[in-house]
């Protein structure tokens, strides 16, 4: 039975965002913002606060073997598979108050709204708070990867740092494998998150449905020329590896721009050898990455990036060694889930506005969870596109609207899944 | 009286180059080549060998307070000012056999040829072997700077490394100031050297007169953009400092090329911050230099390089901080000395060949000596332009021809100065 009267407690949601944001706050002299690395004291305090709010919302609360916090509402009517909502409360250093935390607190408000309205759902509802989404302990999406069975059971035992951090949080690293859930336990996983980019803010639209999470391909290029005397070597005879790298940077960016809005590419690392002011660089090593939602596009970019490196090298009479690096495959959101999210969002937009379908260019726990169940994500705007910095912000009305869409979507998913 | 019969002992010159090149040789597993840092055992052995050859040539030999080796022939007829010929025998690591050593050994052959011919010169002749031309101890041109009175007398006392190195070579750092010679003691200083670049080799001409030694201006640029998430930050909104640096590298090179053959410019240092593969570079710091013989051209390049940095920054929506660094002023060779060198060289070229006037793009002891007396330099070709590497080489006939030109020039200078 759909509880028509279920409504988000807007004021409390905003208050709790503010309250949680006080835990782990850094003084301005230390750069400001929030710092809550997973398993650390600030994160433990935040998790305990969130667990309390879960209990108030009527959820049965437990911590799994990875330190994930799980709150569960009801046993469900016709199905044992739960609808899961969630995100994370760990942060990067100098973080803002919304990344992760917003999705968790909105999910608790959804649960509370359903409880208050006496909604009888066909599915149990779970609120999931994942450990170490930011990768400061276990390499990224650690808690959700553990829940999806993607972490080797002895991972935390083998890595002393991870094991020690877990033990300090009262966890037994040897039992990490127990965090894995069985296929069929979850009907879907839906994550509400700030966009972290500036697209929605520029569009002036308060909510978007995520089509999928981009795949990430890293690469390395070593350009090799000839180190030589910066005075006596004629300009025309030179084989300057830094100039080959410079050409590559500009040509690579040009190619990424041609690909259009769905693709980004960055070179973040560049080192010259020998790296002396009076020696022509003989070697330039760079590391970069590109992100796209389509696997075919990523494959195309692999070949094109290698080609661009070769051309840049040739024009400077250097050679290029191109090497593919780490690879995160794209994750596509579930069509049924997307439809429910879109239907829930549409009535909340102004007349004439369409619900945008965006790709997520950052990693999220939904990527891991896609290995376990259908997933979906909602984005609300990030003002100015700021993310992972203290000035990260979203308009209060958009934060509330996002939670309302999550509530409406939960009710729809309960009917359609 | 000009001794018409004076001739270079070609075979001995080549043998001694080979013999001196065996002192300080590094095994191939250590990268090969020669390593003779000033005041070290290999350098001491080489200097002692050279002192012996000087004595055989009839020179009165002494070591000055900086460790420079000075051989003197005759007291001169009408003038007390000596004609000085020379160079250095210290090396960079993995050096070839010619840099410095060739000029010293050719000068000894000139002295020996004059002695054998019974030449009665108007001027005394000196052969100078300067300590630490390569700057591995005292910062470059150390011995010649000391002789020219350009080193502060307490320099070696204040710098423990330099003082210790001198003491190991049997020198008293407190007496360094005694190495300075008085203006008027030397009528001129002429240095025969390999070119270290590839110009003569490409021209197919065995000898050149040096017009002057280029000035060197170093600079630093810090490009500042905005570090941001490599995934969520749209391509079009970015302020990527690495791209500003890349533009600068290419534009700067273009400008240097437009300046023509007399000018070189290099960026040898480039660092990105934060330097992570998944973060857009917020800061790119680079260090470079340009070299030209004309002071006006150097001043023009200072302004143009700053402007190029500003334009590159603006196109990438970054800012550029441009800063001038170390400065070596250009040194012009003396017109009278150049005329004598040219007259000595011309008869040794093939019909139709002109004696090229080249600028020296590397530093030489002649730069210091120009503060004391008129200077001139001769270049012989460097095969392939290789320098400061084991494969540094010059054709045997060009090495002999260079020494013959030095001999003829000495006789002319004795008449004209």
Please sum up the structure shown:
Two copies of one chain form a homodimer. With 417 residues, the first copy, chain A, is of the alpha/beta class.
How do the strands and helices of this protein lay out in sequence?
2 copies of one chain form a homodimer.
Chain A: H1 10-20, H2 41-56, E1 60-63, E2 69-73, E3 82-88, H3 101-116, E4 125-130, H4 142-147, H5 155-158, H6 160-168, E5 186-194, H7 199-203, E6 208-213, E7 215-224, E8 228-229, H8 241-258, E9 264-273, E10 279-280, E11 283-292, H9 295-315, E12 319-328, E13 331-332, H10 335-345, E14 357-360, H11 365-369, E15 375-380, H12 396-416
Parallel strand pairs in A: 3-4, 3-5, 5-15, 6-14
Antiparallel strand pairs in A: 1-2, 2-4, 6-13, 6-15, 7-11, 7-12, 8-10, 9-11
Characterization of this structure:
The structure is a homodimer of 417-residue chains. Chain A is α/β, with parallel strands linked by helices. In chain A, the strands form 3 sheets. In chain A, strands 1, 2, 3, 4, 5, 6, 13, 14 and 15 form a 9-stranded mixed β-sheet that branches. Chain A has a 4-stranded antiparallel β-sheet with strand order 9-11-7-12, covered by helices on one side. Chain A is globular. The first copy, chain A, starts with 9 loop residues before the first helix and ends with a helix. Chain A has 12 helices and 15 strands. In chain A, helix 8 packs antiparallel against helix 9 (295-315). Chain A has 2 domains: 2-213 and 331-416, Zn peptidases (Aminopeptidase, 3-Layer(aba) Sandwich); 215-328, 2-Layer Sandwich (Alpha-Beta Plaits). The relative contact order of chain A is 0.17. At the A-B interface, strand 8, helix 8, strand 9, strand 10 and strand 11 of A face strand 8, helix 8, strand 9, strand 10 and strand 11 of B.
